[in-house]
Design brief:
This protein is α+β, with helices and mostly antiparallel strands and 124 residues long. The mean pLDDT is 84. The two termini are 32 Å apart. It has one domain (2-94). Helix content is 18%, strand content 20%. It is built from 2 helices and 5 strands; from the N terminus they run βαββββα.
Length: 124
Protein backbone atom coordinates (compact mmCIF):
# COMPACT_ATOMS: atom_id res chain seq x y z
CA UNK A 1 0.00 0.00 0.00
CA UNK A 2 1.21 3.49 -0.77
CA UNK A 3 -0.08 6.97 -0.27
CA UNK A 4 -1.36 8.37 -3.55
CA UNK A 5 0.00 11.78 -4.60
CA UNK A 6 -3.49 13.29 -4.60
CA UNK A 7 -2.48 16.69 -6.01
CA UNK A 8 -0.83 14.97 -8.98
CA UNK A 9 -3.92 12.81 -9.54
CA UNK A 10 -6.24 15.82 -9.40
CA UNK A 11 -4.02 17.72 -11.85
CA UNK A 12 -4.12 14.73 -14.19
CA UNK A 13 -7.90 14.48 -13.88
CA UNK A 14 -8.41 18.16 -14.55
CA UNK A 15 -6.21 18.04 -17.64
CA UNK A 16 -7.96 14.98 -19.07
CA UNK A 17 -10.11 15.72 -22.13
CA UNK A 18 -12.98 13.63 -20.75
CA UNK A 19 -12.82 14.22 -16.98
CA UNK A 20 -15.93 12.27 -15.98
CA UNK A 21 -14.51 10.93 -12.73
CA UNK A 22 -15.57 11.98 -9.28
CA UNK A 23 -12.58 13.60 -7.60
CA UNK A 24 -13.85 12.38 -4.23
CA UNK A 25 -13.09 8.82 -5.35
CA UNK A 26 -9.41 9.57 -4.74
CA UNK A 27 -9.90 11.33 -1.39
CA UNK A 28 -8.72 8.35 0.68
CA UNK A 29 -5.33 8.83 -0.93
CA UNK A 30 -4.13 5.21 -1.00
CA UNK A 31 -3.35 2.68 -3.70
CA UNK A 32 -2.69 -1.05 -3.40
CA UNK A 33 -0.68 -3.06 -5.89
CA UNK A 34 -2.91 -5.26 -8.04
CA UNK A 35 -0.09 -7.52 -9.22
CA UNK A 36 0.70 -10.92 -7.74
CA UNK A 37 2.87 -11.17 -4.66
CA UNK A 38 6.52 -11.67 -5.49
CA UNK A 39 6.50 -9.74 -8.76
CA UNK A 40 9.55 -7.76 -9.80
CA UNK A 41 9.61 -4.18 -11.02
CA UNK A 42 7.04 -1.52 -10.38
CA UNK A 43 3.85 -1.89 -8.36
CA UNK A 44 0.65 -0.95 -10.20
CA UNK A 45 -2.89 0.14 -9.41
CA UNK A 46 -5.66 0.88 -11.90
CA UNK A 47 -7.01 4.44 -11.67
CA UNK A 48 -9.58 4.87 -14.46
CA UNK A 49 -10.46 3.87 -18.00
CA UNK A 50 -8.42 5.49 -20.75
CA UNK A 51 -9.57 7.55 -23.70
CA UNK A 52 -9.64 4.45 -25.92
CA UNK A 53 -11.66 1.31 -25.26
CA UNK A 54 -8.55 -0.90 -24.92
CA UNK A 55 -6.56 1.25 -22.48
CA UNK A 56 -6.59 2.56 -18.93
CA UNK A 57 -4.79 5.03 -16.68
CA UNK A 58 -2.52 3.32 -14.17
CA UNK A 59 -0.46 4.53 -11.23
CA UNK A 60 2.95 2.80 -11.05
CA UNK A 61 5.50 3.11 -8.26
CA UNK A 62 8.80 1.70 -7.06
CA UNK A 63 9.23 3.39 -3.72
CA UNK A 64 7.91 6.20 -1.62
CA UNK A 65 9.23 8.91 -3.92
CA UNK A 66 9.36 7.17 -7.31
CA UNK A 67 6.08 7.02 -9.21
CA UNK A 68 4.59 7.63 -12.62
CA UNK A 69 1.25 7.70 -14.38
CA UNK A 70 0.88 5.63 -17.53
CA UNK A 71 -1.85 4.92 -20.04
CA UNK A 72 -1.48 1.21 -20.72
CA UNK A 73 -3.34 -1.23 -22.95
CA UNK A 74 -5.43 -3.89 -21.22
CA UNK A 75 -4.12 -7.44 -21.11
CA UNK A 76 -5.74 -9.30 -23.99
CA UNK A 77 -5.84 -12.72 -22.28
CA UNK A 78 -9.30 -14.08 -21.52
CA UNK A 79 -10.11 -16.64 -18.82
CA UNK A 80 -11.91 -19.84 -19.85
CA UNK A 81 -15.08 -18.39 -18.26
CA UNK A 82 -14.93 -15.41 -20.64
CA UNK A 83 -13.67 -12.78 -18.17
CA UNK A 84 -10.85 -10.50 -19.26
CA UNK A 85 -7.67 -10.35 -17.21
CA UNK A 86 -8.21 -6.89 -15.70
CA UNK A 87 -4.52 -6.00 -15.61
CA UNK A 88 -2.41 -4.14 -18.15
CA UNK A 89 -0.71 -5.79 -21.11
CA UNK A 90 2.66 -7.44 -20.35
CA UNK A 91 2.06 -7.39 -16.57
CA UNK A 92 4.26 -9.50 -14.31
CA UNK A 93 3.50 -13.08 -13.27
CA UNK A 94 -0.10 -14.36 -13.23
CA UNK A 95 -3.35 -12.93 -14.58
CA UNK A 96 -5.89 -11.15 -12.36
CA UNK A 97 -7.98 -14.27 -11.68
CA UNK A 98 -4.96 -15.94 -10.07
CA UNK A 99 -3.94 -12.96 -7.93
CA UNK A 100 -4.91 -13.41 -4.30
CA UNK A 101 -5.36 -10.70 -1.70
CA UNK A 102 -4.02 -11.96 1.65
CA UNK A 103 -6.11 -9.41 3.58
CA UNK A 104 -9.34 -10.40 1.84
CA UNK A 105 -8.47 -14.09 2.31
CA UNK A 106 -7.88 -13.57 6.05
CA UNK A 107 -11.18 -11.69 6.41
CA UNK A 108 -13.06 -14.45 4.59
CA UNK A 109 -11.47 -17.11 6.82
CA UNK A 110 -12.48 -15.12 9.92
CA UNK A 111 -15.99 -14.63 8.56
CA UNK A 112 -16.38 -18.38 8.02
CA UNK A 113 -14.85 -19.26 11.42
CA UNK A 114 -16.67 -16.53 13.41
CA UNK A 115 -19.88 -15.51 11.59
CA UNK A 116 -21.51 -14.20 14.79
CA UNK A 117 -18.67 -11.68 15.17
CA UNK A 118 -19.76 -10.26 11.81
CA UNK A 119 -23.45 -10.18 12.77
CA UNK A 120 -24.34 -13.33 10.84
CA UNK A 121 -25.98 -16.55 11.99
CA UNK A 122 -23.60 -19.24 13.28
CA UNK A 123 -24.16 -21.39 10.21
CA UNK A 124 -23.58 -19.74 6.83
Amino acid sequence: MRRLPVRDVLTLLQSAPDATYDHAEFADGYVCCELAEGHTGEHADFLWDGGEVDEAQWFLWNGEEEFRFAVLKWCSVTHENGDGCGLFDAHALVHAWDVTDPTADALLEDLIANPEKWGLPKEL
